[in-house]
């Protein structure tokens, strides 16, 4: 008998590898993995797929200073995000075509690449998706997969949101 789970959640690379964040960003209690999300996904036997980290993969930038979205919003970086988003969306579409369930996609609020709902800029809060997330969303929007943004300072809201979509 094959006992595998056919449920999947796509996570940002840094959710389980905080070392991939820009320098000076990891200020909260989670030093490596943002553990409550991992615990929840394991508890419900969800397959965890780590999406690529657009910023660290761009010109070998594992160690980098934080930059605002306007600095990232270049033709070269957008092309890079588009290539990564195309790979991830193909993976998602392949799973769906096999009748596997992609329960949710997670993002990180305030990230120029991976935010879902908002980012702070020098003009204040902007409601928008990050450069990678926007391209991914455009590729798969017809699948209606919930996309949940994590605020690392206050994780409970997105944790509850994730639990709800898993249990629905
Ligand atoms: S680009 Fe995305 S995956 Fe990479 S560190 Fe930023 S939020 Fe995490």
**Number of DSSP E strands:** 6
Give the mean pLDDT. 97
The helix count comes to 6
CATH class: Alpha Beta
Tally of separate domains: 1
Rg from alpha-carbon coordinates? 16 Å
CATH architecture: 3-Layer(aba) Sandwich
Q: Low-confidence parts, pLDDT < 50 over ≥5 residues?
A: none
Instruction: Classify the fold: give the CATH topology.
Output: Rossmann fold
Form type: globular
Largest sheet: 4 strands, parallel
Strand order of the largest sheet: 2-1-3-6
Strand coverage percent:
15-25%
Helix content: 25-40%
SSE string, helix = H, strand = E?
EHEHHHEEEHEH
- Tell me the distance between the termini: 26 Å
Task: Write the topology of this structure.
Elements: E1 7-11, H1 35-43, E2 47-50, H2 54-57, H3 69-72, H4 75-97, E3 101-108, E4 118-121, E5 124-127, H5 131-140, E6 147-150, H6 156-167
Parallel strand pairs: 1-2, 1-3, 3-6
Antiparallel strand pairs: 4-5
Bound molecules: iron/sulfur cluster.
Structure notes:
With 168 residues, this protein is of the alpha/beta class. It has one domain: Rossmann fold. It has six helices and six strands. It has a four-stranded parallel β-sheet, sandwiched between helices. The chain has a two-stranded antiparallel sheet with strand order 4-5. Helix 4 (75-97) runs parallel beside helix 5 (131-140). The longest helix has 23 residues, at 75-97. Bound molecules: iron/sulfur cluster. Iron/sulfur cluster binds next to helix 2.
Q: Keywords for this structure?
A:
alpha/beta; two-stranded antiparallel ribbon; 168 residues; Rossmann fold; 4-stranded parallel beta sheet; 6 strands; globular; binds iron/sulfur cluster
């Amino acid at each position: 008998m094959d006992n595998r789970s056919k449920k999947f959640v796509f996570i940002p690379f840094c959710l389980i590898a905080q070392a991939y964040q820009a320098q000076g960003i990891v200020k909260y209690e989670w030093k490596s993995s943002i553990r409550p999300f991992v615990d929840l996904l394991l508890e419900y036997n969800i397959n965890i797929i780590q999406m690529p980290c657009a910023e660290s993969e761009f010109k070998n930038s594992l160690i980098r200073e934080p930059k605002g979205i306007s600095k990232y919003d270049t033709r070269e970086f957008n092309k890079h995000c588009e290539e990564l988003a195309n790979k991830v969306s193909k993976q998602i579409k392949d799973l769906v075509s096999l009748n596997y369930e992609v329960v949710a996609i997670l993002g990180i609020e305030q990230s120029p690449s991976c935010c879902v709902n908002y980012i702070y800029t020098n003009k204040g809060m902007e409601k928008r998706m990050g450069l990678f997330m926007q391209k991914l969303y455009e590729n798969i929007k017809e699948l209606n997969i919930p996309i949940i943004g994590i605020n690392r300072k206050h994780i409970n809201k997105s944790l509850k949101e994730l639990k709800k979509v898993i249990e629905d």
